[in-house]
């Protein structure tokens, strides 16, 4: 096998890292700072029928008022599970039950609540960093495999540098997105 034939698919690695960034944006969108929004519940998963399911697949999510989100749970047996999932989500919202309807009053953002939200944003960013690092690890595994298949040491060093630079670039994007989101949250 000639050295020209051994190449690491950095486009695939980049696509997967881009997916981590896209997922982070979705999670950040759930951290609405001013008004109630149905998207704030998107990252919350409910243990329904033996598997983790998004809330919008077990009930209808509505925003009847600027500071209120309601969830009309379709299956009575899931109401308590949905309530529990919201309480454990870290959103800092206290659900109120009314039959099969769960009401989520969105509190005014005081200084303490803003700090809580910045911590949640930091957790989301850390998950994105871990995802990017996992993609990096996969890339490094590909390089090790290619080396055992005859890749030269110079090529190995070249590809390791490429994968590391790609990783650094995406980690920097995660940090930048976090800084921006935390700035939005802390803005009064």
UniProtKB/TrEMBL annotation:
It is found in: Cytoplasm. InterPro entries: Ribosome_recyc_fac, Ribosome_recyc_fac_dom, RRF_sf. One of its GO terms (biological process) is cytoplasmic translational termination. CDD domains: RRF (cd00520). The keyword Ribosomal protein does not apply. Residues 25-186 form the Ribosome recycling factor domain. Keywords: Cytoplasm, Protein biosynthesis. GO terms for cellular component: cytosol. It comes from the Bacteria. Pfam families: RRF. One of its GO terms (molecular function) is ribosomal large subunit binding. Responsible for the release of ribosomes from messenger RNA at the termination of protein biosynthesis. May increase the efficiency of translation by recycling ribosomes from one round of translation to another. NCBIfam families: frr (TIGR00496). Belongs to the RRF family. This is Ribosome-recycling factor. It comes from Salinihabitans flavidus. The gene is frr.
